[in-house]
């Protein structure tokens, strides 16, 4: 099982615990798992309760009757938000940077509410990780719930929480970013390295272009060193239900047709032996794989053999 560190928080209107079938339905707390040569730690930052038919506008309320194990007691879709700390030997990097400092008062039309916000800096402290010591943050894309603590307004220091880190961003990602009045990431272009598909940015960490949600959306393939791999796939999928419904469009996908093609490529890849996925928004079943029946199977000792 994934090892929890500290308590598991419930999303706004949910309760603790998961579904009877083990698929789960709530948000994770801080957890850590050693897989081969890798140590992975999920660093939570926000929990979000979504309105399912607004996130997936092609779905109907009846479609969700078979997916109650992913939902809160009041019928909202539970999603998490945070970052993944990746450690292998002397290599230590973060994938995405959480939601950042948000009030939770202003929600989008597809959201019901937030819970346990503003915890990523505290979680890193609990882990004994000084954000200033991280040399690299690799982003799946540049939406605000992934750039959070790396934005120039995240903390009083304009260098962000991660004062010296380099930003690794997929090629083409800035084409779809809303630049507004200033840089999305602290330091702007001076700190950004644009990464092409297939580029290895650190030992055993390789970029995989999965565009559609955004133009430069990038998954990160992590080599465990023992013949397995883990794909941190960002928003290529937002919920385990998409494994069975890759045709369900997401309200935030910039290019829906391209996003669906990327989802199908990802699902096919996750069905291979020895390949596992990390879905940052996948509530309390972020680690898993696609089993022989075409369903998301959360990580367990049995999953890995």
Automatic annotation (TrEMBL):
Matches recorded under Pfam families: Lactamase_B
Chain segments carrying region Disordered: 1-26
Keyword Zinc: yes
Alphabetically ordered keywords of this record: Hydrolase, Metal-binding, Zinc
SMART domains per record: Lactamase_B (SM00849)
UniProt cross-references to Gene3D superfamilies, sorted A to Z: Ribonuclease Z/Hydroxyacylglutathione hydrolase-like
InterPro entries membership: MBL_superfamily_lactonases (IPR051013), Metallo-B-lactamas (IPR001279), RibonucZ/Hydroxyglut_hydro (IPR036866)
Domain Metallo-beta-lactamase: 80-278
Stated family: Belongs to the metallo-beta-lactamase superfamily.
PANTHER family in the record: QUORUM-QUENCHING LACTONASE YTNP-RELATED, QUORUM-QUENCHING LACTONASE YTNP-RELATED-RELATED
Name of this protein: MBL fold metallo-hydrolase
Species lineage: Bacteria, Bacillati, Actinomycetota, Actinomycetes, Kitasatosporales
């Amino acid at each position: 099982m994934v090892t929890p560190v500290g308590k598991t928080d419930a999303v706004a209107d949910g309760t603790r615990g998961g579904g009877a079938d083990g698929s789960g339905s709530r948000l994770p707390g801080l957890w850590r798992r050693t897989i081969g040569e890798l140590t992975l730690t999920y660093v939570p930052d926000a929990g979000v309760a979504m309105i399912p038919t607004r996130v997936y506008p092609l779905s109907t309320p009846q479609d969700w009757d078979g997916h109650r194990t992913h939902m809160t007691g009041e019928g909202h879709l539970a999603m998490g938000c945070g970052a993944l700390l990746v450690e292998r030997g002397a290599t230590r990097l973060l994938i995405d940077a959480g939601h950042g400092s948000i009030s939770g008062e202003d929600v989008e039309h597809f959201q019901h509410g937030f819970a346990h916000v503003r915890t990523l800096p505290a979680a890193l402290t609990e882990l004994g990780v000084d954000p200033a010591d991280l040399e690299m943050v690799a982003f799946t894309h540049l939406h605000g719930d992934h750039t959070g603590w790396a934005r120039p307004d995240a903390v009083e220091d304009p260098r962000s929480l991660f004062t010296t880190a380099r930003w690794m961003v997929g090629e083409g990602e800035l084409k779809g970013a809303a630049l507004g009045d200033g840089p999305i990431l602290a330091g702007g272009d001076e700190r950004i390295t644009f990464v092409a598909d297939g580029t290895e940015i650190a030992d055993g960490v390789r970029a995989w272009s999965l565009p559609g949600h955004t133009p430069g959306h990038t998954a990160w393939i992590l080599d465990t060193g023992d013949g397995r791999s883990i794909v941190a796939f960002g928003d290529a999928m937002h919920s385990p239900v998409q494994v069975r419904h890759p045709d369900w469009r997401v309200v935030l996908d910039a290019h829906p047709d391209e996003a669906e093609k990327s989802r199908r490529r990802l699902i096919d890849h996750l069905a291979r032996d020895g390949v596992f996925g990390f879905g940052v928004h996948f509530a309390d079943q972020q680690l898993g794989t696609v089993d022989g029946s075409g369903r998301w199977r959360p990580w367990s000792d049995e999953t890995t053999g």
